[in-house]
């Protein structure tokens, strides 16, 4: 009597898995197709870090040099130092851009329908996160290619290439999960710009994207030094920086992956209609 039940359960499980994978691909493909039609979005994503690289870093190329400290084995120019931080900037801004798109879709777009689909809500949010990470990686690749044309070539290829890919994927997922979490607490599009000013700029400037931690401590900026140590963006940049030179990043991968998991878990909790999202959507 049990054999028929098992035979019925197996196709049902395969059907559910196929349905979940189709939903994942549909959401990722939708974001990719939408991004492909928005040429201005790619340009705006690349203009900001390229201006830093071509103007700011070039101006300080011969003024600031980075001493021989890990992961570097020789003196490097300033533009080489900030390049990983600018890659992080690309992924950070795309994560926040996806948060804005999520708020819009939740209010009047397709996400209102997706959140009622017969799939676990966490899976739908994971698909959205995967789409954000893919877009972040594509924009990072475009930035690296243009930076190489400007004369800032990064050591991407070698036995350490898998480390570089892991660091890039980890950083993209963490920043995408942070944007997903932020979309829970931004109720209206009008409030989004203000929220970004309290997330993007502190995360970027209070980190090692522009200057090493030992420089901060040496300059006596103790509060910035300690704040940068508690900033998860610092560890995303450091993981990528150490991976580019095949060095051990220490605790950075654990902190980045842990932050990504924590942000995603809180976002799933926030989008639960019985807890966070249901309460947030109440007006008046």
Number of helices: 13
| Average predicted local confidence, pLDDT | 79
Provide the spatial order of strands within the biggest beta sheet.
1-2
SSE topology string? HHEEHHHHHHHHHHH
Percentage of helical residues?
A: over 70%
In short:
The protein has 284 residues and is mainly α. It is 74% helix and 1% strand.
What does this structure look like?
With 284 residues, the chain is mainly alpha-helical. It contains 13 helices and 2 strands; from the N terminus they run ααββααααααααααα. The protein starts with a helix and ends with a helix. Mean pLDDT is 79; it is low at 276-284.
Helix and strand arrangement:
Blueprint: H1 2-37, H2 39-59, E1 65-66, E2 76-77, H3 78-108, H4 111-114, H5 121-149, H6 161-185, H7 192-197, H8 200-205, H9 213-219, H10 222-229, H11 232-244, H12 252-270, H13 276-280
Antiparallel strand pairs: 1-2
């Amino acid at each position: 009597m049990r054999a028929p039940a098992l035979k019925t359960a197996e196709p049902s499980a395969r059907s559910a898995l196929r349905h979940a994978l189709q939903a994942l691909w549909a959401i990722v493909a939708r974001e990719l197709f939408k991004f492909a039609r928005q040429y201005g979005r790619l340009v705006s994503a690349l203009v900001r870090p390229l201006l830093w690289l071509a103007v700011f870093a070039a101006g300080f190329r011969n003024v600031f040099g980075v001493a021989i400290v890990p992961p570097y084995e020789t003196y490097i120019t300033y533009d080489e130092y900030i390049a990983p931080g600018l890659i992080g900037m690309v992924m950070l801004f795309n994560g926040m851009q996806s948060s804005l798109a999520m708020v819009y879709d939740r209010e009047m777009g397709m996400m209102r329908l997706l959140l009622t689909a017969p799939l676990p809500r966490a899976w739908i949010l994971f698909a959205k996160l995967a789409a954000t990470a893919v877009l972040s990686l594509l924009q990072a690749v475009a930035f690296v290619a243009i930076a190489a044309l400007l004369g800032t070539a990064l050591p991407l290829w070698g036995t350490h290439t898998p480390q570089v890919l892991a660091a890039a994927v980890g950083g993209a997922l963490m920043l995408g999960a942070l944007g997903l979490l932020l979309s829970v607490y931004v109720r209206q599009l009008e409030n989004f710009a203000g929220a970004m000013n309290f997330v993007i700029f502190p995360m970027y400037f209070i980190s090692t994207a522009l200057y090493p931690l030992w420089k901060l401590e040496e300059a006596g900026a103790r509060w910035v030094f300690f704040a940068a140590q508690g900033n998860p963006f610092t560890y995303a940049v450091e993981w990528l920086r150490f991976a580019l030179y095949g060095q051990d990043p220490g605790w950075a991968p654990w902190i980045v992956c842990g932050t990504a998991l924590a942000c995603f878990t809180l976002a799933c909790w926030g989008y639960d209609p019985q807890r966070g999202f249901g309460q947030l959507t109440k007006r008046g």
